[in-house]
Amino acid sequence: MILRPFVAARPISHLLRRTHKPTPTLLTQIRTLTQADIDDPGMNGGYPNPPAQKRQFRDPYADWWDKQERRNFGEPVHEDHDILGVFSPHEYTHFSAQKG
Question: Which terminal Cβ of the chain has fewer Cβ within 10 Å, N or C?
């Protein structure tokens, strides 16, 4: 009960004088190309990226080192190998859309 009169007796004007003005900050991000970006535009460490060809459409009777995956030893794989590999969903090519 003793603190209540003191709290009520304080003037409110001291709260109004304390206005918070945020300091302006510069949050700019400017992207600049480095020499590494120019030398390696694919950002894959210079790894040779072969053309995107599904393994399904490669010759199944050729002399492959890996007969199941239809690739030779040391042959680089495409970066989308999970989509282009043998175990990806097969494309149905028995009929064209025109015949179907």
Answer: N
